[in-house]
Design goal:
Blueprint: H1 2-20, H2 26-42, H3 51-66, H4 69-103, H5 108-114, H6 123-129, H7 134-162, H8 187-207, H9 212-228, H10 235-251, H11 255-259, H12 265-290, H13 294-300, H14 306-315, H15 321-352
Helix pairs in contact: 1-2, 1-10, 2-10, 3-8, 3-9, 3-10, 4-5, 4-12, 4-15, 5-7, 5-15, 6-7, 7-12, 7-13, 8-9, 9-15, 12-13, 13-15, 14-15
């Protein structure tokens, strides 16, 4: 019990510090470093195995809450760019994942989950549940997040300025109507959401399906939100889940694991090049096929969160709510479907060995 409290204390303090420093996924990264430090130097870090289940249930419920009814009503108008974006991301995920697997010491599960364009706080713990190396996945996801938030927007701006005169005008009007967010934020809705997510998360865990402990809460809370408008997960609950996830991942890191991080240089390069190329190439495809401006299309393909993308788009002088909605669609679909596809691939490849 003492080791558990020490782990949560160290992890929570560093998570808070990293969050204040505006590090992407600060609570997860900081708590992972705190728990890892405690484990490496004092061998005192401990988190129960059930932590994985708790984190997946809360994270799944949170993702289920981000989709709004107004987003669903808009889908018939944006299904084409959504489909192009998701197919391109899946191709990138599988291609880069297998390339990492064949060019580095990483196992297949770790390689594939490292490239998943999902949340930095959710993907590592799902990766652990699927048998991957969670800390390595967290490092790779951090690099992707930094790329999406700090690097690609600058490249998009520079590219836009360089070829501004040759830009073809958008053939579709920008959708500027703001997303209509639910006003349901009561503690009753929170408890109901938590209960529904827990029931379906435990059912998913018992099913034995890949990442079902995470996917079932997403789907059940989506139904609760869109059909009954009675789903709510406060941000502080998400932050607690991030600290728990980071502490769990950090408690599995030893000094030998730290030395293995040197093997991530080539995988990191593959992820950076892959997502940068996807931003430009798929962005151009979406621009031509769907009538968005080049800048709008590239923002659609940038691997950042919906809230981050809203701020980035505003900074770049882009006002189009479709960009935000497509980022929400990406978050929900990727975290619901991609782990299932990876699970099938792992099952098929392991069966063939």
């Amino acid at each position: 019990m003492l080791n558990l409290l020490l782990t949560l204390l160290f992890g929570g303090i560093l998570g808070f510090i990293f969050n204040r420093l505006k590090v992407p996924g600060g609570f997860l990264i900081g708590s992972m470093i705190g728990a890892a430090t405690l484990n490496i130097f004092l061998a005192a870090a401990y988190m129960p195995n059930q932590t994985k289940i708790i984190v997946q249930i809360i994270a799944g419920a949170f993702i289920g809450c981000i989709m709004e009814k107004s987003d669903v009503k808009r889908l018939p108008q944006i299904w084409k760019p959504a489909l192009i974006m998701l197919i391109a991301l899946l191709i990138l995920n599988l291609t880069a994942g297998f390339l990492i697997y064949y060019t580095s010491p990483l196992d297949l599960a770790t390689a594939l989950m490292s490239v998943v364009p999902g949340g930095i706080s959710d993907t590592p713990i799902i990766a652990v549940a699927m048998g991957a190396d969670g800390p390595k996945v967290a490092v790779m996801q951090l690099a992707r997040q930094i790329l999406g938030i700090a690097v690609l927007p600058g490249l998009i701006y520079a590219w836009d300025q360089r070829i501004k005169k040759s830009h073809a005008p958008a053939t579709r009007a920008a959708y500027t109507k703001k997303r209509q967010k639910s006003n349901t934020k009561s503690w009753q809705a929170f408890l109901c959401t938590l209960a529904v997510a827990t029931i379906f998360g435990l059912l998913g865990n018992a099913s034995g399906l890949p990442s079902a402990t995470f996917v079932f809460p997403i789907i059940s809370v989506l139904v609760l939100k869109l059909c009954f408008d009675f789903a709510y997960i406060p941000r502080w609950a998400k932050k607690i889940a991030q600290v728990l996830s980071g502490c769990y991942l950090g408690s599995t890191i030893s000094s030998s694991n730290l030395l293995e991080l040197r093997y991530l240089l080539l995988p990191l390069l593959i992820v950076i090049v892959g997502y940068t190329a996807n931003c430009f190439l798929t962005g151009k495809l979406i621009s031509r096929a769907c009538g968005f401006t080049q800048k709008e299309a590239m923002l659609i393909t940038t691997p950042a969160g919906a809230s981050d993308m809203a701020l980035i788009a505003a900074d770049l002088g882009v006002e189009n709510t479709d960009i935000i909605i497509l980022q929400v669609v990406r978050a929900v679909v990727v975290m619901t479907v991609f782990p299932q596809i990876i699970g099938l691939i792992l099952r098929f490849t392991q069966g063939g060995l």
